[in-house]
Amino acid sequence: MSKQMTINAEFAKGLWEHNPVLRQLLGMCPTLAVTTSAINGVGMGLATTFVLTCASLMISLLRKLIPGQVRIASFIVVIATFVTIVDLTMKAQFPEMSKSLGAFIPLIVVNCIILGRAEAFASKNNPGRAIIDALGMGLGFTASLTTLGGIREVLGNGTLFGVQVMPHQYVPWIVMILPAGAFLTLGLMLGIYNKFNHRHEEAALRAARLAAAAKGV
Amino acid sequence: MELFGIFLTAALINNFVLSQFLGICPFIGVSGKLSAATSMGMATTFVLVMAAMVTFLIQQYILAPLGLDFLQTVSFILVIASLVQFVEMVIKKVSKPLYRSLGIYLPLITTNCAIMGLCLFAAMRHYSFFQSLVFALGAGVGFTLAIVLMAGIREELELADIPRSLRGAGITMVVAGTLALGFMGFAGMKF
């Protein structure tokens, strides 16, 4: 039972508590660059999740074989292999998506989330846990990108996943799909995320104080 | 004139940080202090120029003639990683003070996507050797400019009264957004 709990927690930590984008501030470049629409966010997120999961599994399996001194170089080769697979697959299967994401698909190789999880988690844990951790982190990344892309698409273009959601009289805020909009939206998203967490912490603190006071009586 | 155009485009109009979103991690991470930001900018420029030259030669004389284009990602990242290692060793040997002032930032340059991005863009646009060189120099100057501007603003921000939840990365992003708006003004320049 407790084992089950820890696996659930392992999975869930990437979604909110240790969200790669909002908490750890990793993988900022693709986050800002490709989120001009929600669908781009989904595509980039899933491509990264695939590379992250496969690379974590591989590195976890090889963790006892790779000598410590050359581990970073070895991790990078493993990651680059899976990135090449994704790049070629997307070019063949989803040429349009591949074109709109452009150089950011091969650039997954330098996404710090992947190397970060490889170094901090996959190289120290068994394959099962490594996969769960990678899936959680990958989906957390996808969720953040989709939210950011959705906000920018609705405000900057009046659509969501290509469907018109704003009334026709709505004048799109072009700035939202320009680079400046990416920075502003992500900055405000970080603010809201922190606000939630602070409120949560304060509530927990107040509950603890109340419990202590009740015990005193 | 064409080379000058490539330089200005990379440095200002399509600034690597503020309009291409390359190299955001050091831009957020190392822009707390002006001196550190300047060192980071210079080290990155140096690696950018070296990497552009080496990957150009690899693309031109090894990958393209042998039809091994699909190995681009793997070979470029390996070259960049070993280059950074090499640069680190050379700087350590040649100038101890410079090595100490750059410290941990040097190895971190490997995962700076500006380097990898520059090499991929140069290969994609079929730049010649000198064009790649100038492109790298422009990108480096643009990166240095952005990170130094940001560090200057952040040093001032330390005295400002910022809402608690926006402190740190949040306000940095909003400031970067304002800077990006400013850099959009260069978009009208045509060469």
Question: What's the arrangement of secondary structure elements?
Answer:
The complex is a heterodimer of chains A (217) and B (191).
Chain A: H1 2-13, H2 28-34, H3 38-61, H4 71-93, H5 95-101, H6 112-120, H7 127-157, E1 159-160, E2 163-164, H8 179-216
Antiparallel strand pairs in A: 1-2
Chain B: H1 2-13, H2 24-29, H3 34-66, H4 72-94, H5 96-102, H6 105-108, H7 113-124, H8 129-157, H9 169-183
Give a short overview:
The complex is a heterodimer of chains A (217) and B (191). Chain A is mostly helical and 217 residues long.
Explain what you see:
- The complex is a heterodimer of chains A (about 220) and B (about 190).
- Chain A is mainly α.
- Chain A has helices at about 1-15, 30-35, 40-60, 70-95, 95-100, 110-120, 125-155, 180-215, and strands at about 160, 165.
- Chain A has one domain (about 1-215).
- In chain A, helix 1 (about 1-15) runs parallel beside helix 7 (about 125-155), helix 3 (about 40-60) packs across helix 4 (about 70-95) and helix 3 (about 40-60) runs parallel beside helix 6.
- The model of chain A has no long low-confidence stretch (mean pLDDT about 85).
- Chain B has one domain.
- The mean pLDDT of chain B is about 85.
- The chains are: A mainly alpha (about 220), B mainly alpha (about 190).
